Amino acid sequence: MAPERETARERAVSGATATGRPRGPRLDQPRPPRRRVLPEWDPDAFGRLSERIARFIGTGRFLVWMTVVIIVWVVWNVSVPAGLRFDEYPFIFLTLALSLQASYAAPLILLAQNRQDDRDRVNLEQDRKQNERSIADTEYLTREIAALRVGLGEVATRDWIRSELQDLAKELEERKNGHRHKAGVFPAERPDGSDVHDR
User: Fold this and answer.
1) Rounded CA gap, 171 and 155, in Å?
2) Average pLDDT, 10 consecutive residues per value, the chain (199 residues)
């Protein structure tokens, strides 16, 4: 009974829309990895190795060792008996070895230079963005300082308040002295010197 129900359910799910279509790759699942004929390698690891080799080739140690090997090679093939020599006078095998070393060294050095150029380009881009941020921050701070200066120009400072108070005190003193000269006494005083409010 249970298998019959499952087949009926499968028929109902498949319906009329799924009957005539050919089955293709599903879009909701990743594709299975393809088999490759060529071996795979990590380009970044190969680049790091090429940089290490290029750095070694560019050192004085490499030049010294290469010079020692060439001198030993030439001395061996000139001075030992003919049966022990592996490269006779024109040193064709030595020439081939040096040509092979040069043919591998040149692309490795170019690859290392390309990687260094890429790093320099990224660093320059980051420096440029950092400079743009610094310039924007500096301009913002300049505007803020200018706004503060304008605002401080309108704020009453201690010296300004002191000078205003001194001017007011002088003006009051002048009024007081001018009023005395005119009336002779303050209006609140009687001519006999007693106050109006005295009882």
Assistant:
1) 24
2) 51 52 75 78 81 89 94 92 87 93 90 90 95 95 89 74 90 83 53 52
